[in-house]
Design goal:
The complex is a heterodimer of chains A (473) and B (68). Chain A contains 15 helices and 11 strands. Chain A is of the alpha/beta class and 473 residues long. Chain A has a single domain, classed as Amidase signature (AS) enzymes (Alpha-Beta Complex), CATH 3.90.1300.10. In chain A, strands 1-3-2-4-6-5-10-11-9-7-8 form an 11-stranded mixed sheet. In chain A, α5 runs parallel beside α6, α7 packs antiparallel against α15 and α10 packs antiparallel against α12. The longest helix of chain A is centred in the C-terminal third of the chain and has 26 residues. Chain A is globular, with a radius of gyration of 21 Å. Chain B contains 3 helices and no strands. Chain B starts with 8 loop residues before the first helix and ends in a 29-residue tail after the last helix. The chains are: A alpha/beta (473), B mainly alpha (68). At the A-B interface, α10, α11 and α12 of A face α2 and α3 of B.
């Protein structure tokens, strides 16, 4: 059997169902691993060991009786600390929320409870899902398991670090301008930002009202599709929730790409902004590989990346400020400097500028829909640069300015980050595959074909086990 | 930390109007940079979209009716 720490959701679920692995054994192994290595990565804010073991024992008993609930039954996961879990604080990694207690579970947490999944704990993020890796908060920022001196990406930084370090096989993230796909890119895992409305935002502390998405994060594409199914679906209590059935992303997952039409948005990284040569080389190789696998690939052109960035940033600034205005006015010193600097510009965005950004958003959405008329998907880079050193705030800020993820928050359409290889020094490289609204099955299908042909997902960071295990002590 | 009294008058007035007196006192450089970012004009709208184009989403009163 694969080392339990590196079991995928799909592998582990099969073993659980066949009673060749116990949910308790899997959960204990991960809790031990968290105790042994997380002091190097700071992924977890809270480890819910007792609850996790109780949930694992309940799953074990049900599976033993033949009451298998589905592919997430008995599967451990980690939760970004921006989702409400009844009785726990939703700190959003902020001093401001340190005394909060949630009175109910977020919709997706309820869904995962119903599916029999096992919560390992709540993981780190950039404060309120904005700003950056801050050193002036009650908890340290998460570190990148491939090189702990590097930024793990954010804002779902703990989710990315926990997955890459083998501390959880699945994690929940949120994405307003790329916060699922950035840590997926930097940590060499898989992160999906689904269609706006596909996954409920109920019980998730908002960063913005119209750009936020909940997204599944895993180590493989298949696991991501499984996790997406567990959390997606209509929520009558969320006005943004789509009234439609979740498409079956597993049915044609392994159908390959032969005959599929893929557009490459090259100008984002060849003309519009400076891109790292390794990132560009890797996506060029990905284009060649997808063509060899039978896809028809052509270059397409959209509005310049700067226009998409302006649109996303303006809406983001105005909406985020509306949420945090009172605290920014009354207790600005309680935010991390990076967060405060991200929130303050919203005070100066005029109503007219916000409306113009909404007009721009409508135009850009039409433009993307027109481009997709004769395509099944598009691909482009995720990060244009490599992850910078975590303590170099200026370099980290530059990575947030040079990225092509926020494009798909503007369109609200699905986009996934998948590994495209590694630099000579072992830093993960990645690209995005994106589709039309509610076309998650197509996005997953292309990502799966690419991942299977490369085998990059089988590579793990060199983790040093330093400390004594907790639950077996 | 720089001196709040050296903040441009227009920024100081706007910040105070927006209730940011405390932030201005503690972080004058941060407020000045924020004003520059927030006031930066948006890029041009794509061809075919003008300032009288309706923004999305359209307000839909029917959405609030019972059963909707």
């Amino acid at each position: 059997m694969t080392d339990v720490a590196w079991l995928t959701v799909a592998e582990g679920s099969q073993l659980l169902r066949a009673k060749k692995l116990s949910p308790v054994e899997w959960t204990k192994a991960l809790l031990d691993r968290i105790a042994a290595i997380d002091s190097q990565y700071n992924a977890f804010l809270v480890v819910t060991a007792d609850q996790a073991l109780a949930q694992a024992k309940a799953a074990e008993a049900e599976i033993a009786k033949g009451q298998w609930r589905g592919p997430m039954h008995g599967v451990p996961y980690a939760c970004k600390d921006i989702f409400d879990i009844e009785g726990m604080a939703t700190t959003c990694h902020s001093k401001i929320r340190i005394d909060h207690r949630a009175s109910a579970d977020a919709f997706v947490v309820k869904r995962l409870r119903k599916a029999g999944a096992v919560l390992l704990g709540k993981v780190a993020l950039h404060e309120f899902a904005t700003g950056g890796p801050a050193f002036d908060l009650p908890w340290p920022p998460a570190r990148n398991p491939w090189n702990r001196d590097l930024h793990p990406g954010g804002s779902s930084s703990g989710s990315g670090a926990a997955l890459a370090a083998g501390m959880a096989p699945a994690a929940l993230g949120t994405d307003t301008g790329g916060s699922v796909r950035n840590p997926a890119t930097c940590c060499g895992i898989v992160g999906m930002k689904p269609t706006y409305g596909a996954v409920s935002l109920n019980g998730v502390f908002p960063l913005t009202y119209s750009l936020d998405h909940v997204g599944p994060m895993t180590r493989t594409v298949e696991d991501n599709a499984i996790f997406f199914h567990a959390i997606a679906g209509h929520d009558p209590d969320d006005p943004t929730s789509a009234r439609r059935e979740t498409p079956d992303c597993l049915k044609d997952l392994k159908a390959g790409v032969k005959g599929l039409r893929i557009g490459v948005i090259e100008h984002f990284y060849r003309q519009d902004a400076e891109a790292n040569a390794d990132q560009v080389r890797a996506i060029d190789q990905a284009v060649d590989l997808l063509q060899k696998l039978g896809a028809s690939v052509k270059t397409i052109r959209l509005s310049p990346l700067s226009l998409w960035t302006d649109c996303n940033r303006t809406i983001h600034q105005a909406e985020a400020y509306a949420i945090h205005e009172k605290d920014v006015q009354q207790r600005p010193e309680d935010f991390a400097a990076l967060t405060r600097n991200r929130l303050l510009p919203g005070a100066f965005v005029s109503a007219a500028k916000y409306i113009r950004a909404q007009q721009l958003r409508a135009a850009l959405c039409r433009e993307f829909a027109d481009a997709m008329r004769d395509l099944d998907a598009v691909m482009t880079l995720s990060s244009l640069l490599l992850p910078s050193r975590i303590e170099d705030a200026a370099a980290v800020a530059k990575t947030y300015d040079q990225q092509a993820r926020l494009v798909f928050n503007v369109t609200g359409t699905p986009a996934i980050s998948v590994l495209t290889g590694f630099t000579a020094s072992g830093i993960p490289l990645a690209m995005q595959i994106a589709g039309s609204a509610f076309e998650e099955p197509m996005v997953y299908r292309i990502a799966q074909a690419y991942e299977a042909a490369t085998g990059f997902a089988d590579r793990h960071p060199p983790i040093k086990l330093r400390e004594k295990a907790a639950t077996t002590a | 930390m720089s001196d709040a009294s050296k903040t441009p008058e227009a920024v100081r007035l706007m910040a105070e109007q927006h209730g940011l007196a405390k932030a201005l006192k503690l972080y004058p450089d941060g407020v000045k940079a924020a004003a520059e970012r927030g006031l930066k004009p948006l890029g041009d709208l794509p061809a075919g979209t003008t300032q009288i184009s309706s923004p999305a989403p359209i307000f839909n009163p029917a959405r609030f009716e019972r059963g909707e």
